[in-house]
Amino acid sequence: MNPIFEKEPLHPGIAHYIIHNCDYPGLAELGLPAARKYASIAPASSHAQHMPSHIFTRLGLWNDCIQSNLVSISSARCYAEKAKIKGHWDDELHAMDYLVYAYLQKGQDELAQQQVDYLETINEVYPVNSKSAYAFAAIRTRNLLERKMWKQAAALSLHPANFPWEKFPWQEAIIHFARAMGAVNTNNPNEAKEELQKMNLLYDELAKQTDKKQEAGQVAVQLKTLQAWIEFKQGNNEKGLNLMRAAADMEDGMEKHPVTPGEVTPARELLGEMLLEMNQPVSALEAFEADLKIRPDRFNGLYGAGLACERAGNKAQAAVYFKDLLKSSDAQNCKRVELQKARSFLSHV
Fold first, then answer.
1. 308 φ, ψ to 5°?
2. Which phi and psi angles does 298 have, rounded to 5°?
3. If we measure between CA atoms, which residue out of 301, 171, 188, 302 comes closest to residue 234?
4. Which domains does the chain have, with CATH numbers?
5. What pLDDT does residue 10 have?
């Protein structure tokens, strides 16, 4: 479609479909010209302002993603006011999810938390649909899992409480996944198993629906991930590792759902973290590097790769990853201990 776009550079529909078609690893670069152009074609459209961030996210262009969605959110609020929408427009929440994702990759946790706090004041959205349900569930979950706030994750509640969650089993499963990951990382395996059972019921519900195969697949990955971490935390290293590898392979073989900037936490990244905990830094590095090829410049991916190199005795390569982390993150304002460790390592190289 790019040759058509060259002939019709002001056609918003062409730019829109180029971005969707290129919203995959390996193709994202091809969509960058359309992403750069689209916002200026339809400056009053919230969705047009947001769409370029699909490509920016795939390429790890976090500053561009942030700016794109800040403008989109502002436009969505203006539209909602003019159209006299009761509550918040779903486009606002959709852009917020991409915004929070980008903030977290830069380590701008205070800005991400501000969006989460604001989201928790929202009790009504129009229309009530899969997109808004996903934003409600994913924004709060990714904020906690990315920052490894396990205690808070274990206590995460469904919000809004009056939302018809029974209509959205995939999105509800995300909250149970957060709770289970929180429980398993705070030494509460029984609570994790309870959440696992709830997720199994939601998976069964999705599996019955012929038009929800992709969503069912994503829940299946999360189920296998949880089984892996429960086994690992209970001392069954080999079984846990086999399950985690299987979850990562499943996820890598799936297409990204168009509503999401990315998984609430990538399975192959979690595989790398499990391998680090098993003191297998060489294998952990393989997992992190494979994940970074698909999801470039993720904060936890870069830090994990640097840490794996350091523990494997490869200081030169560790320095490369830690420098990349400082470059892609907000090094001046980020308060995460991981960035402090990366900076400390580099000061002694």
1. -65, -40
2. -70, 140
3. 188
4. 1-110 (1.25.40), 133-265 (1.25.40), 280-349 (1.25.40.10)
5. 61
